[in-house]
Amino acid sequence: MTLVKFNNGQKREVNPWFNDVFDSLINDSRLADRFVNKIPAVNIAETENEFHIELAVPGLKKEDFKISLDKNVLSVSAEKKTENVDESKKYSKREYSYNSFARSFTLPETADYAKIDAEYTDGVLKLNVAKKEEAKIQSREISVK
Q1: Model pTM greater than 0.90?
Q2: Which long-range contacts (CB under 8 A, 24 or more apart) does 129-132 make?
Q3: Would you say 64 and 79 are in contact if contact means Cβ atoms under 8 Å apart?
Q4: Rounded CA gap, 4 and 25, in Å?
Q5: How far apart are CA 9 and CA 67, in angstroms?
Q6: 57, 88, 94, 128 — which has fewest CB within 10 A?
Q7: Coil, helix or strand for 23?
């Protein structure tokens, strides 16, 4: 038995059953993965001393990344081209693989733009943006008078 997702409640001009089956084929995750440009998932956290940005980008190398800062906008992009070529055969068709993405983050005024570090390990790009000294939370005990 095959389960088919139907979009009940939506009125269509053509046969609704045909459209629902057709939509399920087009929106199949196996097919969609080949045609959709993927944007990496991001985790953003803040500690007392810095901001942490983590991007899930497996399959890339350190050299594939371009990280830039323009005013208060931190931009991260990557580009990877793969060409499968066999010189011993004459091809009438070759398939290329090209992956790219770009993400931008607006940094707050409390960020120290001179102290930004990047590290890529195990498919995760980690960016650490330090906070300015005056922006760090100072904890102290206040006495009651």
Answers
A1: no
A2: 129/50, 129/51, 129/52, 129/53, 129/74, 130/49, 130/50, 131/48, 131/49, 131/50, 131/51
A3: yes
A4: 9
A5: 46
A6: 88
A7: helix
